[in-house]
Design a protein that fits this description.
The chain is an all-beta fold and 123 residues long. Helix content is 0%, strand content 50%. It is built from no helices and 11 strands. Strands 2, 4, 5, 6, 9, 10 and 11 form a 7-stranded mixed sheet that branches. A 4-stranded antiparallel sheet has the order 1-3-8-7, with no helix packed on it. 28% of the residues are buried.
């Protein structure tokens, strides 16, 4: 059984940088043909794709967040992480990590999700 678990700070001050980590069990993040995604859902809004890191370590980001986002991995611990800089209250959201087959972009077709972690940006 594949499981993903997000961890990170719950409260962040504006202009700061935060990092979230997704710990994966039951599958290797280097297994061929999977993308490891970060998605968020602001309060009262829909899901927003942030970016992914592929099984080979390549990354891709949504253009509106690209300049503030970095996704990287720790293969020895089977984890991948999201770093978001210069945050504002608009970055307040539930943040999820999820696995998808390579090239799948529809949220409903992602096969495994973490339970999500709330990040609130507030002074």
């Amino acid at each position: 059984q594949v499981q993903l678990q997000e961890s990170g700070p719950g409260l962040v001050k504006p202009s700061q940088t935060f990092s979230l980590t997704c710990t994966v069990s039951g599958a290797s993040i280097t297994t061929n043909n999977y993308d490891w995604n970060w998605i968020r859902q602001p309060p009262g809004k829909g899901l927003e794709w942030i970016g992914y890191i592929t099984y080979s370590g390549s990354t891709a980001y949504t253009p509106p967040l690209k300049s503030r986002t970095s996704i990287f991995r720790d293969t020895s611990n089977n984890q991948f992480s999201l770093q978001l800089s210069s945050v504002t209250p608009e970055d307040t959201a539930m943040y999820y990590c999820a696995r998808a087959h390579r090239g799948v972009t529809t949220f409903g077709l992602y096969d495994y999700w973490g339970q999500g972690t709330q990040v609130t940006v507030s002074s």
